[in-house]
Design brief:
The chain has one domain. It is mainly alpha-helical and about 350 residues long. Helix 4 packs antiparallel against helix 14. It starts with a helix and ends with a helix.
């Protein structure tokens, strides 16, 4: 049994869905910062690529090299890979250019497994730039593309989740801009905030007691334990999360920030280190696993709340150090290598301040 499972059960069972909050948040930010600038050609492809490359690539590459070394060490000690098995030169090279999940499209994860979403982000940036430059940066185009991406789920789940989330984030940005113009915008923001909290209560309740699962089974006349029914409910959850839960949450938070004083600003430091902690989690787990092998520790030795607290504290501390002393300095250094033209300075400088 995992540490304090009674409290953290939603994270243990559905923690994978956290990345489906990241995609729409990314889409929201990109429509906010870049859509108009790209469409009006005040931000060119070179500036856009530099800003994104300097933000993602340095830490991604460092963690790729570290994870590759730890994976090889773990395989030498145990005879098998740590969680992710697609650890060959082809995947290393494609990971190096952040294209491992779409060039060619694959579901196989390699080395630092969670970096699959970084690869999908890069693909989304390319699609977003092309659409915005072509003049398709409105909410209708974003909604159509998000909805059409449902058809890709059984071809490549990762690409489908990225497209659905990112472009729903664009829809949310347009919605927030429209809501801000209403005379009763503050009331709308408050209602959406309460609705979002109620929705998350329902999600957590479903994880613990599965009332919705059971109700749907009764209404459909199906066996709630049939694997086909479970698969149908599972994908229904994913679609509802992608098109309702995640967008509503981001919309509520955005309006709270813009209209209600930003009651959640205290959480912003965690947002700053989210990228580093996301990429550091697997290398840190491998270090723990290798230490366990060296000291003869067993899995049950790690099933302690104190080990969990220690791991999270270490992860957050490393994330802070990485963000402050590696990510930010390398971003500045890389961005100084390319001179921002005067025509793109305004949009570029605004993006630099926000990232």
């Amino acid at each position: 049994m995992e540490p304090i499972e009674w409290l953290l059960k939603p994270l243990y069972e559905q923690g994978w869905a956290a990345v489906d909050l990241f995609f729409p948040l990314s889409g929201f930010v990109f429509y906010w910062l870049y859509a108009r600038a790209i469409q009006e050609r005040t931000t060119g492809a070179e500036t856009f690529a530099l800003l994104r490359f300097s933000r993602l690539w340095p830490l991604h590459t460092l963690m790729l090299v570290v994870a590759a070394g730890l994976q090889l060490t773990f395989r030498a000690r145990t005879g098998h890979w740590f969680i992710y098995s697609a650890n060959d030169w082809q995947h290393f090279v494609s990971s190096f250019v952040m294209a491992q999940q779409w060039l060619p499209p694959t579901l196989a994860q390699s080395f630092d497994g969670p970096s699959w979403s970084v690869s999908i982000e890069v693909l989304l940036y390319v699609i977003f730039f092309v659409l915005a430059r072509a003049g398709f940066a409105g909410w209708r185009a974003a909604l159509v593309l998000a909805a059409a991406s449902i058809s890709l789920i059984f071809w490549n789940e990762f690409i489908a989740r990225g497209l659905m989330g990112f472009f729903m984030g664009g829809v949310v940005w347009h919605a927030s801009e429209r809501i801000k113009t209403l005379s009763f915008a503050r009331t709308v923001a408050q209602v959406l905030g309460l609705t979002a909290m109620g929705m998350w209560f329902l999600i957590f309740w479903e994880v613990y007691a599965a009332p919705i699962h059971a109700l749907v089974a009764i209404l459909a006349g199906s066996d709630a334990h049939d694997w086909r029914f479970d698969m149908w409910v599972g994908w229904s959850f994913r679609l509802l999360f992608a098109f309702i839960a995640a967008p509503l949450t981001i919309l509520a938070l955005a309006l709270d920030e813009q209209l209600l004083g930003g009651r959640y600003k205290a959480l912003s430091p965690l947002g700053d280190i989210s990228y580093s902690t996301y990429l550091l989690q697997i290398p840190l787990q491998m270090v723990c696993a290798l230490a366990a092998l060296s000291f003869g520790l067993k899995p049950h030795d790690f099933m302690s709340i104190w080990v969990l607290i220690g791991f999270l504290a270490t992860l957050i501390g490393l994330g802070y150090l990485s963000h402050r002393y590696f990510e930010l300095p390398t971003q500045r250094w890389l961005r100084r290598l390319v001179t921002t033209p005067r025509s793109t300075a305004k949009a570029g400088h605004r993006a630099l301040r926000e990232e």
